[in-house]
Write a structure and sequence with these properties.
With about 250 residues, the chain is of the alpha+beta class. The chain has seven helices and nine strands, in the order αβααβββββαβααβαβ.
Length: about 250
């Protein structure tokens, strides 16, 4: 690396590390909402995540057994298991900093937690097929779209990967970048991808604990998945997909 390139690299590194651009937080701009408001027709109470039976309660066994799973048995999730998976990936422990931030089951830079969780329900006992959004602050589900015909469009949006439509449920996480940009204007977009990894790794471990499995999916048509979820693709867009089925 020559001196000019080295100097450029150092300058960029210092810029990213220090976030020298003044953030909206520093400017006194009010923080964005911790959760996207829900205006749908139906809110569903979830049972306690503690009701889910852990087939593998030993964390050492869970980590050793974790792997990507693309073939699933024809067996449904129950509501307690769904509750467990939602809580494990985005569950809220509580509010802090005068209510402008949350502590959750996964780490997030500056506790910004820029994600929303959507679930394509194909086979969950006691729950109608359709698309739902996890209301993490309340630990409830909000119905987004009813329908038995979502598997085909989801498979198409995921570039023909059939297993995403054969799971008991397929999770899709979107990101609202401004939640992180409000505090980290220069480095938010690097941070968001790291945070998404934290979320999906918890899904792997939580699914393994209840005898189910998942496979992280980042190969999809951005526009088609965003349209399926009903997000605009700019202020909110899909960042990760993960089907869950019986191992």
């Amino acid at each position: 690396m020559d001196d000019a390139n080295r100097a450029s690299f150092i300058m960029k590194s210092k810029f990213l590390k220090s976030d020298t651009v003044r953030s909206d937080q520093q400017k006194g701009v009010p923080p964005p909402a911790l959760e996207k408001p829900y205006f749908g027709e139906k809110v569903i109470d979830l049972p306690s995540y503690r009701e889910a039976e852990l087939v593998k309660p030993d964390i050492r066994e869970i980590i050793a057994g974790r792997k990507s799973l693309r073939e699933y048995k024809d067996e449904p999730l129950n509501m307690s298991q769904l509750s467990w998976l939602l809580w494990a990936t985005q569950g809220v422990h509580g509010l802090f900093k005068n209510g402008i931030a949350t502590r959750r089951t996964v780490p997030s830079a500056g506790a910004r937690h820029a994600f929303e969780t959507y679930v394509f329900v194909f086979d969950v006992t006691g729950l109608q097929k359709g698309l739902y959004r996890y209301l993490a602050l309340e630990h409830k589900l909000g119905l987004v779209k009813r329908g038995d015909d979502l598997a085909g469009p989801l498979v198409e949006a995921c570039l023909g990967q059939a297993f995403v439509g054969k799971a008991a449920a397929t999770f899709a996480w979107t990101v609202i970048p401004y939640r992180s940009e409000w505090r980290y204007p220069a480095s938010a977009h690097r941070i968001l991808f790291l945070d998404a990894g934290h979320v999906c790794q918890n899904m792997y471990l939580a699914a393994e604990a209840i005898g189910f499995g998942t496979c992280a999916v980042a190969a999809y048509n951005q526009k088609l998945v965003d349209e399926l979820l009903g997000v605009d693709g700019e202020e909110e867009f899909t960042i990760y997909v993960a089907p869950v089925g019986k191992a």
